[in-house]
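Quick one:
INPUT:
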């Protein structure tokens, strides 16, 4: 069988064209959907999450990172 998951993601766009708004939008995307998608694709959490959450965010061992990376047969984005 196949193993996958569905992630609810919605479009986010900057309020203005300012650099601060663009950075905030990318940060929001990482916190809303990147925390699930990036480990599945890259084996680790988004850098911004690691920086902001620090020790409160679990750390993947190298073995865990390799285990989770590419482990899903498909990802559905709703």
């Amino acid at each position: 069988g196949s193993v996958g998951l569905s992630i609810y993601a919605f479009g986010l766009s900057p309020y203005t064209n300012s650099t601060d708004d663009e950075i905030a939008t990318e940060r929001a995307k990482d916190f809303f959907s990147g925390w699930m998608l990036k480990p599945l694709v890259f084996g680790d959490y988004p850098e911004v999450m690691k920086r902001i959450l620090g020790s409160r965010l679990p750390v993947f061992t190298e073995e865990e990172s390799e285990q989770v990376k590419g482990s899903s047969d498909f990802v559905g984005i709703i």
